Structure prediction request, 859 residues.
Amino acid sequence: MLFNSLSFLLLFLPIAYVVFWRLTSKTHRYAWLVISSYVFYSFWDYRFCALMLLTTLVGYLAGLGLLMWQDPRRRWVCVIAPVATCLAFLGFFKYTTFFAASVNAVLSWLGGSFAAPRLDIILPIGISFYTFHTITYMVDAYRRAITPTRNFLMFASYVAFFPQLVAGPIMRFKQIEEELATIDRADRKATLDIGWSFFVIGMVKKVLIADTIAAVIDPALSRYAELSTLDAWLCMLGYSYQLYFDFSGYSDMAVGLGYLFGLRLPQNFNSPYKATDIADFWRRWHISLSSFFRDYVYIPLGGNRASRLTAYRNVMITMLLCGLWHGANWTFVVWGGYHGLLLVLQQRFGGLWDGLPMWSRRAGTFVLVVLGWVLFRSDNFEMALALLRVMFSWHAGSTIIGAPVLVAMLMLAGGIAHYAPNTFEVRHRWAPAGVAGFAVLFGICVFVLYSAQPSPFLYFQF
Amino acid sequence: MSGTDFPRTTWQMGAVIPRLLLVVCLVDVSLRFMSIDPLTFRAWEALTRYRPLGAAFEPNRHYSNERSYGDSAAMGNHPELRQYRHETFTTDALGFRNVAASRSEPAAAILIGDSFAVGSGVSDEETLSSRLSTLSGCIIYNAGSEHAYPDPAQVLALARNLHMQGGLILHLYSEDRELPAVPTQWQREVKQVLVRTPEWAGSFVGRVRGLITVSPLRIMSERAMKAIANDRIFPNRYDANVVKATLSTGDSMLFLASRLQNFYSKRREASVEYWTWMGAELRRERLNFLVLLVPGKYTVYRRFLVNQGPVGYMAGDYLYRLEHALRAAGVPVLHLAPIFLARAGDSVARGEFLYWLDDVHWTSRGIDLAAATIQESWPLTGPSCGGAHRSLTAKTP
Prediction:
């Protein structure tokens, strides 16, 4: 079920909301959140609810073990075994096919006759996110940054809470522990307006901006070999804004829904296209993921505390893994490597970059990010190279259908992304005219949703 | 985007947006109780909405549209390729497409099958059952439905309802349809329950199903989006549903993309279990059974289209294999592809077509050809035959 679907808006959400606030006890509210989250998830494929439950059980039992045992060796086993189990689930469902295909390609290239069997494994939606939720919980408990909960329903509602279940933000237990612990005292009216404000802004970003851009660029990119230079740049600029408004729109909706249920979810985007360098970009883009890789991969590897070369190696490993997390495709790995390389170059030549005027650093960072999105958007290297070739060699003309609409949307999206405050910077207390304006935009969104199947969020595939 | 502090009033997001959703919900629900006829471009949508259980359409309805057009043009959002035509569509008390008439006289044959049997895109007097009635002078009952593969129990119940004693069951199978399968015991039991369902209960279930599944608000919204997805403001995102091909005469012809894959599928299974089972069940009740194989539009017109790929080994021979298998199983069969292929060439040169350019279905010309071929190969006889104009379709509503 998608947030931008009529079944969610007109059926699931009202029922989940009304029942939640009719319940008064903590246990009942946890139970209801778990039930509604599993129902929400089962709309994709009910069979994978069992996998999510299993991951939840692994995390919960690991937490109990860490609560019970103080012996360092036992605690070590208590974190390593369940983390490895969760990563094994993730690896099997997300990467088996990819690695089998890669092994076959290498063997074929070497002239071997062996071929790994082809397994058509379905990727359970959201597995990357709820696996990471569970891992952060176990590792934080091992580090004694949190006290694991004995309440299974509380833990299950943390893992499965439907607003952030399938595409984050990747929430740490300590970020929500206090509010979960006092969920029976949550004040519905206190967060009602801000919740809807976040949700409506997210919906407008997704349905009216991201999907409108996608309606023009997706058909154009499907015939990428025919694009002119102008087309290719328009498409990649369009994709850059589409991705941002799609994912940040989703995150805003998730935050809004969190507020509606009395829980505050963390910020995931902080105007990333205002970044002045690549490190700044990663502090602003998909913050919950980049901070995960920083805290659970980069720093444990040694961070920048050792020699310069070791620090570069740590950056590259972290970014390659970050790329691989995004999808089982070598284009994502190379995209991660590209950003790793940019971060290394920044560490090496940051002084020169910092000497440039602010506007040129922002523009330069944005262009570098857009070039990275070419790899991110491409299905394979052939497509990526073809797009880069046409972007950097002159091919006249334009064949994009709907180009005027695209240009208008790029101007609007660019204005908001580069100059407007983001949703965490506004106060969400609107004058009646502002509320009326949002109501009109939301009404248009609903009308658009009536016209077709809702388009999935781009980050659902990860 | 930031605002200033305002006292909490009804003009806050938390008050306005839920109310807006409530209004949308109420508008949607209210519109569901209104007729969708003005929003439809052909009878099929208008008359299937509240069809009772076991019926093909809403009973005793008459639909008329001066500017009906083909489904492929609608699905592909190609208004420039629409072929506007007048369509009248009448249903009887049982919810099938027959012009109302007395059921005191037994029918000589029942035609079952899909939208080709129903006569999608043509008027009442042009359907296959009408044409056969006119040619043979017999009463031919049109029991075509979107559920193209009925259970023998349903057919026998209908035959009893039509006072048939002996006679013929004509099963029209169109090439692009999935192959029918023999239902499981459980499915048969469900069908038995459906047959025995009281009329009022079937109508009630049909009504509720229509209210739940058909949203006029959705239809209006889709129309609006199609109007702007016109390849000028926005790319036509519906275009992938259809394949637009050009005939050697220069005419454009639309095909459903999914159905073209059927043609090029090299090994479509040609199992005839359903028909042998159906034939045996019907024979037990002294009813004859004939399977009518109708070629798909692409099969008929492929050789007149420009820039078509090579057919390839075993592609396009599905109906021939099916015919062979049916004959081998002892099931009477009439294969229309040879005659359609032979006639299509002449008609293309004259700018006349056996199938609509903007739809997958046959035109009245194609139906006439099928009716003549059936009457020639399998002359209909029976107590109700003999007098011209005694068919169910003889009366105008």
Summary: The radius of gyration of chain B is 24 Å.
